[in-house]
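Researcher: Good morning. I'm working through a list of sequences from a screen, and I'd like to move beyond sequence-only analysis. For each chain I'm collecting a predicted structure so we can compare shapes side by side. This is the next one on the list. No need for commentary yet; just the structure.
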Amino acid sequence: MNASDRVLVRAPATAANLGPGMDALGLALGLHNTFAFRLGGEAVVVEARGPGSAEVPAGAGNLAVVAFQSAREALGLPPVRGLHVACEVAVPPRGGLGSSATAVVAGILAAEALAGASLTRTERHQLATHLEGHPDNVIPCCEGGLCVALASEGRAPTVLRALPEAPPALVALIPRDLRLSTAAMREVLPRQVPWRDAVRTAGCAALLVFALLRGERGALATALDDRLHEPYRARCIPGFAEVRAAARAAGALGTVLSGSGPTLLVFGEDAAHARAAAEAGRAAWAAAGVSADARPLPIDGEGAEVVRVAPTE
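Model: Good morning. Structure tokens for this chain:
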């Protein structure tokens, strides 16, 4: 690889957990943040445009910058003094769609491209997981598709990736004004859960992977059932139960929190069923005082990518 002074990176949104797969399962989605990195100047400057851009930190504490400098360190290089990052924000911050993961992965890929050097896949996964704190967003953001990522203390996560052959249709219900931080939503989780709930959720997680990969719609409807985190996080989301019930009554295979929420991911037999179920859920949410947008999202099979590199002149 040749060193460059500017690069454009495109990173997908991700839906983590998918119900029963807490901190392990993640799916890359066709909604992307774009980051333009340029070396030069005497300071770190971050600019952001798009919905939610006001929440993006503007200096060296920005996650994309932290990841960029951390990746340079991992490559054996010193931090850069001058860096300009322009972010085109499409993935809403604190919405449960992995916005922070896009920044982490983009920063790592940009550092590699601009240095003309590469981390190994395992090194990249380990660094991204360390920076994010858990692998279920950063791994599908890196790899695309459906990923199982099992965290290991002090080591890179164990990762398996696949593309569902006949995926269900997906529609994200994204609240316009409701935002929740991952840290706050972890605080509401209990220290212990009933044994039967743990056993049921483990079985559903295993069933979910097979159902997605094989296109088994009946099994998928059964598998989208979590008892470890969603019942507790749902209490922080007005109208959650009503939205889920309305979507199911309108034909949804199931509805799960995307990550820790508040975005909900509606699974449908096909695009028409998914849209109808999402619209029913959106109406139920409106009745509870929450305005939301229904956005059909395909699975992103590629993961984050360096779109353009400009060589140093």
